[in-house]
Amino acid sequence: MRLGLVLSEASHGLRRNASMVVSVVLVTFISLTFVGAAILMQMQIGQMKNFWYDRAQVGIYMCTAISPGETCTAGEATQEQIDSVKAQLESPTLATFIDKYYFETHEQAFENFKTQFAGNPVADYVTPEQLNQTFWVNLKNPEDSDVLVESLSGVAGVENVADQRKYLDQIFSVLNVASYTAIGIASLMLVAAALLIATTIRLSAFSRRKELGIMRLVGASNRFIQTPFILEGVFAALLGSLLAGGAVVALVKFFVQDFLGARLSGFALVDLQDALTVVPILLVLGAALAAASANFAITRYLKV
Questions:
Q1: CATH number of 55-166
Q2: Where are the domains of the chain?
């Protein structure tokens, strides 16, 4: 098979069906941009989990004078009850799971509260005594939080033992839903791209039916006839894939790094290296999708 002749036929087909090729490029570009965004979002969720789970703490909230619950019937946690919890944290049973901990008093909790809710009228109605004194515990392995929860829940003077990871899980669940939504939209767009590529190839073949008939009469093989059409689809899809890759890189550079990075300092965000990792995936996916669609379409056409 002469490569130059095959490429010439493919180039001729692209020029003849320029409007349909533009449609394939645009649909492939949009669908693969969604795919790239979904992949980046999963990368971002993974980075955020690693970043925040390592910093997630277990909060052991001591009773206040107004705390409900059976463990707080005596009102404010006494110094003996606070010392008892501290002793348990330093005991051989729990110490092996704990990296470090610190105790937050009413006054310290109030200062943090005022900082967090600065400018909010609610800060004017809260007093230090209403806020829990709390042991904040960092675990060596955040997965071991259940050990602390089971050991200290129900202890006299302890209102509640809360694992901050539960709040993070809710946030990550929302992000996962957004990511899966992007994947769903991308999947629909990829199906549309595959159908459009198949239709484009069949129309291209139909417009050259006389040429194909002559090629068959002179003994051209099906492979020789099919290859230019497959290459037409692959070239168009690769162009759309390159545009999608550029869009993904631009999204990370200008939106994630420049815009969000300046406003969310200290957060672990995806970077250009992650975006450049996604680009080859989009190129391979676009080429494979186009090759499969075009091959299916032209193979069926030649059987008619």
A1: 3.30.70.3040
A2: 3-53+169-302, 55-166
